[in-house]
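Treating backbone geometry as a discrete language has practical consequences that deserve illustration. The sequence in question and its structure tokens are set out directly beneath this paragraph.
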Amino acid sequence: MCRRRAAALLATALLTVGLAGCSGGAEPAGRAAAPTEPPTATTPAPRVPAGTAPSGSFAVGVRQLKLSRGDDRPLPVTIWYPARGSAGGTPQRSATAATGRFPVVMFSHGMNSRPDDYASLLTRWAAAGFVVAAPTFPHTALGGDGNVLDVLNQPADVSYALTRVLALDAKAGDPLRGRLATDRVAAAGHSAGGVTTIGLFTGGRDDRLDAGVVFAGSALGVGTAFSGAAAPQLFVHGEADEVVDYATGRAAYDKVPWPKAMLSLPKGDHGRALLADDAALRVVSETCVEFLRWTLYGDPEARHRLPAGATRGDLATLDDRL
């Protein structure tokens, strides 16, 4: 498919994506047909060596990194990170980083939104022991010009931002100097950010990435030619998604050739589980944390806990091929 055709399809699918559609009350759509590929009994472990993730919670700090990929592509990045102090409470601006080296997760926001819209999710990841860096994209963020086709440029934006974030680990005087596990990196994103994330494992493959988390995303515009070293993937999708059809997300998931899992929320729409529904957010967040503990810390116990946590409360089902 030519790039122009792919871009047109992407525009059709994502033109109306925005936080205003995340709380819609659409009735649950029917489940997609069961995939013909059977789950595997055993699959390769992540390439990260076996280890142990932090068992407790951290306080959370937050800071801004002013970046620009060229004169016309400002990319300010919000960074949430484990900090010293008592866990819980509001993230503290420029708090002192906790002792240790923490894996990095790059997060891509959806159309007409900003990183802060996902703070309830991303601060939970930071409290669990991850540094979460979220660029604000120049055209698709709230307040931008709404050019949906610019999603195709966002995988390169994320890779650029990742390079600059990882460089902080060796930057003299930086608060995150010596605090980043630069060899343990994942990408995640919602909606248009989910497309961006898939693109980082297909045409815009960033070989530094060890894992991916795709929320309500599709492969339109970026394709499903997954390449490079095996990088486990977790897809999260509401079956009543009124913007990116569940079957579309499922189709992208089915093409992933690596260890993978799909968390499906039968009553979930396009984004309420990430933004407003506390019960669903808890299940989604805890599932993601266990997945990231396994893929970025190499923690086998997190892998064992993941299925039970994902289905707690009967709010979601898990297709587990990890």
Observations:
- The domain at 3-10+48-321 is CATH 3.40.50.1820 (Rossmann fold).
- The beta strands are 59-65, 77-83, 92-93, 102-108, 131-135, 180-190, 209-215, 233-238, 260-265, 317-321.
- The longest helix spans residues 278-297.
- The chain has one domain: 3-10+48-321.
